[in-house]
């Protein structure tokens, strides 16, 4: 009996493996999703009217009524901020393009609803139930203006410490894919691509907010004034809900040596700290800093819905009282906590200084407020305090709030100050 030469055995084995083991398992599923739903996705282009050229791009998908397209608010925000300067259009697969009309926005959840010039595709279905954690999903969009792309990833649940609801999608959402849909294996929209933290850590807007947006819209045209009124109402309602959640119970406090000061106010506010030495100025520092995880995008120069605060315990072993207080004055307003905003968006700050006796703790207080120019009833606030009970140790605090009503801004500052105390 003839035997197979030894040198041919590896080749024969490779041949058998190639026949028995299918190449690229699961790729057919991804290819099927792409082929089935790709015609429901479009690129959104924001066009500078004078240059007649793209100033920004994103993605969108057909949802709701015929010709309706959903995308992110941040993709088309300039249509609200500067409608005379920009217009929008869609680019569909196959090269079909046309103008878009802005119908409605949900700035808090970063969504917008547009309408085509008559071009229609069947709307994508909106999922009614969230998927189990670990479910495979597909995100579609137009990354970097290089054409329609599909990304396979995994659903990892809702973010637990988030002021504004987000879904965690383990997949690579890239710039340009914002506003595109993420689908389950039935082709239903589970979430809308909104942002990424890199390394396949991406975030989606939950689909129920799309359902709300397309179900409440009932007008055929909107004006710049009505859009700004709508955004202002959304932000005012949002900050009221935030305040109700924050101050439903007593304000929690943290201890910094003999001082008590506001701590983490809610689960959506993260706090951390560290300590350091400044040998040149003979100072020691203990820092406690907190902030909300999410901001609301209004324009390239302005974000809102922000809560940030920090406490810094500053002490010295060698400086006299005058030199120590000079050092405190130099540290001032903590510029790193200041808010963005240009003169078209917000007014200048108006500030007042004074002294407040809070329980056993006298404080020097600086209080600053600015208003939003286009969004009536909204303000940003800035509060800076310095304790005045010890010539070698002081607590300096800063609170920054963005997008609050006048009454709620003052209520927040009041509740914040009431949490301070000192026990020698």
Description:
The chain folds into two domains: 201 residues, Thrombin, subunit H, CATH 2.40.10.120; 189 residues, Protein Transport Mog1p, Chain A (3-Layer(aba) Sandwich). It is 21% helix and 41% strand. The protein is built from seven helices and 24 strands. A seven-stranded antiparallel sheet has the order 15-16-19-23-22-21-20. A six-stranded antiparallel barrel has the order 1-2-3-6-5-4. A six-stranded antiparallel beta barrel has the order 7-8-9-12-11-10. The chain is elongated, with a radius of gyration of 27 Å. The N terminus is likely disordered.
Q: Can you summarize this structure?
A:
This protein is α+β, with helices and mostly antiparallel strands and 424 residues long.
- Broad shape: elongated
Give the beta-strand count: 24
CATH fold type of the largest domain:
Thrombin, subunit H
Mean pLDDT: 89
**Helix fraction bin:** 10-25%
The biggest beta sheet reads: 7 strands, antiparallel
Structural class: alpha+beta
Please indicate the percent range of residues in DSSP E strands (runs of 2 or more): 35-45%
Lateral arrangement of strands in the main beta sheet: 15-16-19-23-22-21-20
Key structural traits:
7 helices; six-stranded antiparallel barrel; alpha+beta; 2 domains; Thrombin, subunit H; 41% strand; disordered N terminus; seven-stranded antiparallel beta sheet; 24 strands; Protein Transport Mog1p, Chain A; 424 residues
């Amino acid at each position: 009996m003839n035997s197979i030469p030894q040198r041919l055995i590896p080749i024969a084995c490779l041949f058998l493996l190639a026949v028995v083991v299918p190449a690229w398992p699961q790729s057919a599923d991804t290819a099927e999703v792409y082929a089935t739903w790709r015609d429901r996705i479009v690129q959104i282009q924001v066009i500078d009217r004078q240059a007649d050229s793209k100033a920004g791009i994103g993605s969108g998908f057909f949802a709701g009524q015929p010709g309706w397209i959903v995308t992110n608010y941040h993709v088309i925000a300039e249509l609200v901020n500067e409608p005379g300067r920009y217009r929008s259009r869609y680019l569909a697969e196959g090269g079909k393009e046309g103008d878009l009309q802005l119908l409605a926005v949900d700035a808090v959840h970063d969504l917008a609803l547009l309408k085509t010039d008559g071009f229609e595709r069947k709307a994508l279905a909106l999922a009614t139930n969230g998927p189990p954690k670990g479910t495979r999903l597909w995100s579609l969009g137009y990354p970097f203006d290089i054409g329609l792309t599909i990304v396979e990833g995994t659903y990892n649940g809702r973010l637990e410490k988030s002021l504004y609801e987000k879904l965690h999608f383990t997949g690579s959402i890239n710039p340009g894919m914002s506003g595109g849909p993420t689908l389950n294996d039935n082709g239903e929209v589970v979430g809308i691509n909104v942002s990424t933290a890199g390394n396949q850590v991406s975030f989606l807007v939950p689909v129920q907010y799309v359902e709300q947006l397309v179900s409440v819209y009932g007008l055929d045209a909107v004006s710049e004034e009505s859009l700004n009124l709508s955004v202002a109402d959304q932000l005012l309602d949002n900050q009221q809900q935030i305040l109700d959640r924050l101050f439903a119970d007593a304000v929690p406090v943290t201890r910094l040596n003999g001082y008590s000061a506001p701590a983490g106010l809610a689960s959506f506010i993260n706090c951390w700290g560290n300590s350091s030495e400044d040998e040149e100025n003979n100072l020691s520092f203990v820092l406690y800093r907190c902030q909300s995880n999410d901001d609301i995008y209004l324009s390239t120069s302005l974000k809102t819905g922000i809560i940030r605060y920090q406490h810094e315990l500053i002490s010295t072993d060698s400086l006299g009282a005058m030199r120590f207080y000079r050092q405190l004055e130099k540290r001032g307003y903590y510029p790193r906590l200041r808010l963005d905003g240009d003169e078209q968006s917000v007014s200048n700050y108006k500030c007042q200084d004074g002294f407040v006796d809070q329980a056993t703790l006298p404080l020097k207080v600086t209080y600053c407020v600015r208003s939003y120019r286009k969004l009536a009833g909204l303000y940003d606030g800035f509060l800076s305090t310095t304790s005045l009970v010890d010539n070698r140790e002081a607590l300096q605090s800063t609170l920054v709030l963005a997008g609050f009503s006048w009454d709620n801004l003052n209520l927040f500052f009041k509740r914040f100050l009431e949490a301070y105390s000192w026990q020698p």
